[in-house]
Specification:
Shape: globular
Radius of gyration: 19 Å
Helix content: 25-40%
Order of helices and strands: HEHEHEHEHHEHEHEEEEH
Oligomer: single chain
CATH topology: TIM Barrel
Number of domains: 1
Length: about 325
């Protein structure tokens, strides 16, 4: 609460909020209020997706990246970017690649963000997540890790990521919990083919001792995704997903299954690419607003409002359910 007040999101009410409460007592990130979908452009980014590299040890058929070559910024440059994230007032950062665990300085980056009170989540394919690495990430202060799944059975997941990938992802969930990372969840990418397995999600989560799942909708973009045999879900199918999730919220309330109802790109969220360029949307690589090597994150964020939004000019139309 204190951090949100300091950033100007909230005004304290005398006797109701104790400003002396230490930030570290808040161990869960603030759920984004529905008002974010009504904003054209928030003064401060609420959420940052940092693609810390595009180098990857997998070639998923659903991948939206435009290349797999970049090792990302140098360690010194990454620390400068972390400092800009902190200075801009962003309080929630997701680190991913490519495969972020291929970076040996990942723990140092996490520690810098966490020492400033930034909530840090990591998304991984799980191949590199040994018990030792899990413990190292936990020691660095990582709040939350999500292992990526392209299906809830080997049939679909391995079809996208290669033989044996499903077993490795399951192992990663076990290692993350054993390593002491506070929150362990999954991110499930749904497309026109694997959506047939969606009804298995609650049983899958219970079987693996997982309470949290973020639903990502496949976009037919990128070097791999644009040539994939699967398609993006139609709007009617997405609406059905929302309805099913609402049913599960009532019948299985301990499960936290999230599918955002609208696009937040450039409104409250921003993407930092491995090339250090800022862009509104993870799926549209050509639309950038400048480089962090040349301007501050805060100034680039302010300029996003100059190029976005009209109802006809969202970065990615497939994000929307109208």
């Amino acid at each position: 609460m204190q951090r949100l007040m300091n950033l100007g999101f909230l005004t304290s009410v005398r006797d109701l909020i104790d400003s002396r409460l230490p930030t570290e007592k808040v161990i869960k990130e603030f759920p984004a209020p529905e008002i974010q979908f009504m904003l054209k452009h928030s003064k401060v980014p609420w959420y940052c997706l940092w693609e810390i590299c595009t180098k990857c040890d997998s070639r998923c058929k659903i991948c939206y990246l435009s290349d797999f070559d970049s090792v990302g910024p140098t360690s010194n440059a990454a620390q400068r970017i972390a400092a800009q994230i902190i200075e801009a007032g962003i309080f929630y950062v997701t680190l991913l690649g490519g495969e972020a665990l291929l970076r040996h300085d990942l723990e140092a980056i996490i520690a810098t963000l966490r020492n400033a009170g930034v909530f840090v989540k990591l998304i991984t394919n799980g191949f590199q997540l040994s018990l030792a690495r899990s413990k190292s990430l936990a020691t660095a202060g990582l709040n939350h890790i999500e292992v990526s799944f392209d299906g809830l059975t080997p049939q679909f997941h391995d079809n996208s990521r290669g033989s044996g990938a499903f077993i490795e992802a399951e192992k990663a969930l076990i290692q993350a919990k054993r390593g002491g990372i506070p929150r362990v969840g999954i991110v499930l990418t749904l497309d026109s083919k694997n959506a047939s397995e969606f009804h298995l999600l609650p049983s899958f989560m219970h079987e693996h001792g997982i309470r949290e799942c973020y639903i990502s909708l496949f976009k037919k973009v990128g070097m791999s995704g644009s040539n994939a045999q699967m398609d993006s879900l139609a709007s009617e199918a997405i609406i059905s997903l929302y309805r099913q999730i609402q049913i599960w919220h009532s019948t299985d309330p301990e499960l936290l299954i999230t599918l955002l109802p609208a696009c937040t790109c450039g409104r409250t969220s921003v993407v930092i690419g491995a090339d250090q360029r800022l862009r509104p949307c993870p799926f549209v690589h050509a639309k950038t607003v400048g480089s962090l090597e040349e301007a501050s994150l805060s100034s680039l964020w302010a300029s996003i409002g100059d190029v976005l939004y009209s109802d006809e000019n969202f970065p990615c139309q497939s994000c929307l359910v109208r």
